[in-house]
Amino acid sequence: MRTPAALDAHLRTPLYRQGYALVVNAGLTSLFGVVYWLLAARRYTPEALGLNSAAISAMMFLAGVAQLNLMSALTRFIPVSGRKTTRFVLCSYVLSIAAAAVVALAFLAGLDAWAPALSFLTSGPGFILWFVAATMAWCVFNLQDYVLTGLHAAVFVPLENLIYSVLKIGLLVAFVSVSPRYGIFASWTAGLVASLVLVNVLVFARLLPEHAHRGAERPPTKRQLLTFVSADYVGALFWLGATTLMPLLVVALKGATANAYFSLAWMIALPLFAVSASTGAALVVAGSREEDRLPAYARKVLIQTCAIVVPLSLLLAVGAPWVLRVFGEEYAVHSRATLSLLALAAIPNAVTALYVSVYRVQRRMPAVVTLLGLLCGLALGLGVLLMEVFGIAGVGLAWLVAESLVAAVLLFRNARPELLDLLVRARRGPAAWRRARESTRLAPKVLACLPRHLCTEPPTSWAERRCLATVSDMSVITVGPLGAAPRAVIKLPATPLACRGLSREREVLAAIHQDARLRGWCGILPTVLAEGKLGNRPYLVEEMLPGVPANGIVCDGAPETALLSSAAAAIGELHRRTARPAEVVSAMFERWIEAPACVVRGTADGGGAIDRLVAQLRETLEGRTLSLSWVHGDFVPSNILVSADGEAVLGIVDWELAAANDVSSIDLVSLLVSTRAERQRQAVGRVVRELINGAHWTESEEAVLHSADPPCEVDTRTLVLLWWLRHVSSNLSKSTRYTRRGLWARWNIDTVLEAVERP
Fold it and tell me: Which fold has domain 549-757?
């Protein structure tokens, strides 16, 4: 639960503040939308509601076409346009209004061909002028929300839409007696006037001048703007078609009354989709200013979005009959299945909307077009097919299937490490829970065996504080006095593999602490406080070191230069103090290459590729004189404890893979590859494959490699492959969960061996 101070800091973060403001806007729009359509359903006939909702959908579709997708361009480029922003906004308005007039007149000219049910729109000059003006006004109404968001003034968006919603509801009631057939469309469009005037006075009189004083940062060139808008426009048209053409298809295939039942369900569910779009817009604004933090921002936005969308969607899916009963029993009977399915479809849509926003920041416009085109094609195509079988409920089912398929493809292609971790946790979940329960039961017995001199309080008064997650078969429990920070960690192995690792770590720590060359440096290493056995099960109690795991700093998107430099300097001192030159001999090949290759060969599919890798490494290293030293062996961010800002290393843990007389640069390669994998949310094997295929180190990574003291003369490809070989073999030796072939082996072993096999 957040403290008031933490909540205040959370809301002061622009990414969250903008996102929440837009979500509040979606919530208010939904709330007043329910009231609006409730009154419409109660005061107008189903036929009138169906015709008017189809006309509104047509107007919204045409306005979306006429916007030329400038709303995405406004969100993406206003944050970096500085003094050119006012001209950018004005040009966007003028282009959109002109396009709206053209497409609205073209639509009305061919109305008999594509929407004869809406023939009332061409029944007189007044209707024609009204529809064209409404389409032009809706363009500006939509664009101004994105202008406010791009200007970091999204807090005004809920207020603007609140004014419009209240005015729209008032006009709906007023027009019942004046125009019982067209009053819904009239109230929807006439209420735009007040919002347009108030918002644009605020934008042009206050917000744009303030924004201009910040100066132009990276305004887009005409070419960049045209490329972005033209490609994203196609994608936006796909999404627009998927969301606004369906009512027209329903009214054409099933009639106006059926469309009334569908449109009501769609209008209730649509705000759930708007939540994902809103948080995605906030991501575009924040990511455009700090593209290097985009992965971290994306994860935060996904968590924020799911925390809102998932519970609301499930609640609406279950409560659909009761929600619809408010509008009338006939709506509860005919619309409940459609509403439940559409509400569930909003959950995978959170993933789709997130990736659309990420691709827009990265300007990967072909990906946006492909993604939205696939979604539109599936939703409309399946909707038409399933509507014939299930009625309007088939449209809801089509949306659920389309969104789920697209989200599944996106997660598999882009979130492999997260998916792999989820699958692994699910697979080993029962075993991990059993081990955690058993370790919790054994912890008091271990504490009873600890010597009393460890602290002023007797260890028997200590209690378990937390059971830490590990990637091995080792249970790690923090313990300490109640009401104070943890003082120690208890390590309890659960398998023979973990027992060997625990024994090895105990030996390594003892050797390093006794090495005279390392006096004064060992303060960042854990000290063994006690060891022993409970029956046949060994345990080890180590000092609890300060700091936070560096992988949390990396995943949070903080600048990595300081972290890499401090980590390299800390481990570099170990290398420098214990370094000695030595010629590479057969015994070293056995330990560095042959032994780990033998472990991997038992799991990998490509034995020939491993043999080729071993031959390449032997040929490169044989007969060379290298600087050898103590190495950590698993120098990854999760084993490095740092200060909150990541600039100071406070501890280095998990020394079971450490070794003397080894290639010191292996630790630096381990740090760089694992950090890049954490930052990019990729499998380690994919990063290794990119590096051995010629990918370059970044400037900060190059600085770390060049900081090696003494310097290593082995080429990068050899170092990366040498580290990868022992990394995957050590994982296979750490836990039984890696020894079974599966996705982990495919993404971390096979993908590298395939690259090795290529000439």
Answer: Aminoglycoside 3'-phosphotransferase; Chain: A, domain 2 (3.90.1200)
